[in-house]
Amino acid sequence: MFKKLLATPYALFMALFVILPIIMIAVYAFTDAEGALDLIGNFQDLAKEPALGKVIKNSIIAGLSTAVICLLIGYPIAYYLTKAEFNRTGVLIGLFLVPMWVNFLLRMMSTKAVFTVLGIPMGMGTVIFGLCYEFLPFMIMPIYTTIQKIDKSFIEGANDLGATPTKAFWKITVPLSLPGVLSGLTMVIIPSITTFAVTEILSNGKLMLLGDFIYSLKAYNLNMASAISLALMILLGISMIITNRFNKDSEKGGGLW
Amino acid sequence: MEKDIKKQTTAKKENVKKESKQPAKKPVAKQAKPKQEKPKKENFIKELLKDSKKKAVEEPKSEYIIELQGLTKQYGTKTVVKNINLKIKKGEFVTFLGPSGCGKTTTLRMIAGFEIPTEGKVLFEGKDIAKLPPHKRPVNTVFQKYALFPHLNVFNNIAFGLKLKKIDVEYTKKTGEKAIKQVKLKDFLVDPATGVPDFSIADKDYYSYLEKGYVKLCKVKKTIDKITKKGKQSKTLNGYKYYINEKVRRALKIVGLSDYETRDVDSLSGGQQQRVAIARAIVNEPKVLLLDEPLGALDLKMRQEMQIELKEMHRTLGITFIYVTHDQEEALTMSDTVVVMKDGMICQEGTPIDIYNEPRTAYVADFIGESNILNGIMLDDYKVNMVGVDFDCVDAGFGQNTPVDVVIRPEDIEIKKKEKGQLSGVIQSSMFRGVHYEMVCLANGYEFTIHSTVEAPVGKEVDLYVAPENIQIMHKEHVDNTFPVKFLSNTTFDILDATYEFSPSACFENCEYDEENDILKINGEEYTLKGHEAKVKFNFYNIEMTDDEYAAPLAGNVDSMIYKGNHYLVDIKTDQGDHIYADTEYLWDKGDRVGIKIEPDKFKFVDCDFLKKETTPESVSEDKDTTKEA
Predict the structure, then answer these.
(1) CB A140 within 8 A of CB A223
(2) Cα–Cα distance between B215 and B204 in angstroms, integer?
């Protein structure tokens, strides 16, 4: 009985800061400005919103390119970090994580300053650069942990059966590290399309992603902002379920989710 | 369930045997007159399956398939394998046997290619492959923890090697030079008219065959019945896939896991995973199969069953097996040759019977089977003294009054009525062990373990008899401890970075020592020992082992122990890796940390070059004899 009591603060916290906000979002999403029940009105308004199409398009472009670039840069880094000769003391992995300690806004501001000095025009390119810079560690970490968990004897087994080191990498390491890649992708795509400060700073407010869109809506249409948030949440939930199913198929790897 | 599988296996093995007995037609002959034979298209892959090995069969350049020459492996300053020389014949079943850390697995990994030797050669059919990466070696390994790929099912695990396989094809270039081309199985050429795969691409460039209308193996169609999850279905496979399918099916048949193709490897039991691991290795038809403690993770029953099956596989496949184990029973049961290893070196190699009956050292005797190991003195040829009694034996050539180790197997001691044996004793304990009774008899203060089908009751006075041919005499590996020392003063010296005190008058011959004035006289000459170097000897029985490592100048860990009837001979490994041997009546555990105490008057110094020449420092030889009485 006493043990159950100990859980009360957590339950309260969850109720106050997780469940209640979600309910509020749902309530706002399904009511109009006067508070009357309106199940589809907000979504209809959303569909009519002229800017939304462009925002979604931008989000997809920015999110996917960030994810792909992070994967292309992050996978080799994660792979070589697991090799003892490259990461004898763990210093190298530390170096990749240290930027995370610097305040995020500060980093973006200084990146912008560098771009300005170099005379590079602000736009999609700079935004993607900023997003990659910001979220690269989130790609490296899950891939690093999954690759590290792969039993060395699998690679030796593949070599023994006639696979060159390159073949063994593609046939053993890559498939077994897929769960890590999936978590990495989720951890990069979702935050990068819902962030707003990066676009604000690195495109001088010219470019809008979903995060910026919600941010801009909240000033005059809280209901529509809630509707789009709810839609995003449901989308996220579905993608998470798919990812988890994927993970279950190959239980050997361990992602972060 | 297991029994069913076994029945299947034996039945199927016979099939395999029959198939292999059919003489494989020489592909060269076929090429000469392909039109006349008109083999059916469907049959060509059968031919391929029969003779899928290299077309150019090289005559073995050496009668030994694997030869290790001076093989050494060091990790940093630690030497794991020391100068191993070994020759393995084609088709032999060789087992590396030894306790963990003896270097047996490292040796195997050097043959497999996972470790590059620091020194020495690994000859495969006379060619040095020591620096070749594992994927280029004609050997396959069954790993201790199987290492089955978790993301692939049974079929794909086994097919992994086949899909990567390349075949050496000899051909003659347009310029007339001969060359060897590696051809992927998939790209193998088949004559579309006859359906015969062409193993011998002579006189023409490989590609000119393609121009002639030859097709690649993967272009040929073949229909088979396949058991899928939906039941039996007809499926059309290309020739390459059919080939792989057939090979995998046969490998699974050999290990007794037919119809397991689509199973997930994680859903298999340990024994089944083991079988898949073996199938995955043998499907590639390696010339040498390496097995690294493959049965270690199985329970006893399963292990015994797999031992028999492995032995049977070895017989039917005719592949050379190199097996690593720490289980002496496993080694004796399965091998043609057993190689006993210790500390990275080979102690003895020979047939299981030789190793068991004629162990070369007490260590081997102790490691292989049960035995009574005793200190003895070889009085003369065919005469040995042990436990205070003279015995006849069949060994000679040890010299006179030489200290030796004597090994008597428990089943070789006969219990006789009083006054009918060589020594009398009292039965201390008796245990029923299924086939025999295991009895301990105390005679002349020594314990003898006896195996006999007839029980002697506890407390009974009996006589023991050992036939001369059952007394195995061997040289002692070590007679005493000898180490270089440096004197620090007239009463202290440094040995293995530790400082011991000694009393000079007891340790030097003809020595007087004035303690108050620190004056040392040997043979009348005065010496100051400080800074001089010599060697020190001390006997096993003069060492006192203590729990408290700080109570003694030198400490070490117990590395191994041999029971010698009334005491243990303990091998203590110091932190620097030196071995010190000590007699003790107490039983210590392997790995125990112990201090090594030696009384100041128990040292003998030899090789004292600083002494004037008229003295003979070799004064300790008579002291040796007292060793055995202790």
Answers:
(1) no
(2) 16
pLDDT tens digit sequence for B185-239: 777 777 666 656 555 554 455 566 666 666 777 777 767 776 666 777 777 777 7
- Tell me which of A2 and B546 has the higher pLDDT: B546
End-to-end CA distance of chain B: 58
CA nearest B149 in A: which residue?
A: A154
Q: Is B141 an interface residue toward A (CB < 8 Å)?
A: yes
The Cα B343–Cα A194 span in angstroms is 62
User: Does residue A216 contact residue A208 with C-beta atoms inside 8 Å?
Assistant: yes
Distance from B131 to chain A by nearest Cα, in Å? Answer: 14
Residues shown for chain B: 630
Task: Assess if residue A6 is contained within a domain.
Answer: no
CB atoms within 10 A of CB A79: 18
**A146: which residues sit within 8 A by CB, 6+ positions away?**
A176, A177, A179, A180, A181, A253, A254, A255
The tally of domains found in chain A comes to 1
The 10 Å Cβ neighbour count of residue B236 is: 10
Say whether pTM exceeds 0.80.
Answer: no
Q: Which of A147, A161, A178, A248 to mutate to test the interface with B (most CBs of B within 10 A)?
A: A161
Full domain range(s) for residue A156: 52-221+242-249
Contact status of B75 with chain A (Cβ, < 8 Å):
no
- B133 neighbourhood in chain A, CB within 8 Å: 159, 164-165
CATH classification at residue A126: 1.10.3720.10
pLDDT for the residue B31: 40
Judged by CB atoms closer than 8 Å, whether chains meet at A250 and B113 is answered as: no
Residue of B nearest to A152 (CA): B147
Residues of B in contact with A161 (CB under 8 A): 135, 140, 160-161, 164, 280-281, 284
Count the neighbouring beta carbons within 10 Å of the beta carbon of residue B380.
14
What pLDDT, in 10s, does the model give residues B461-470? 999 999 998 8
pLDDT tens-digit profile of A67-121?
A: 999 999 999 989 988 887 766 667 777 777 777 788 888 888 888 999 999 988 8
Q: What is the ipTM of this complex?
A: 0.77
* Domain membership flag for residue A4: no
Q: What is the DSSP letter of B58?
A: P
User: Does residue A191 form part of some domain?
Assistant: yes
Q: Distance (Å, rounded) from C-alpha A53 to C-alpha A208?
A: 11
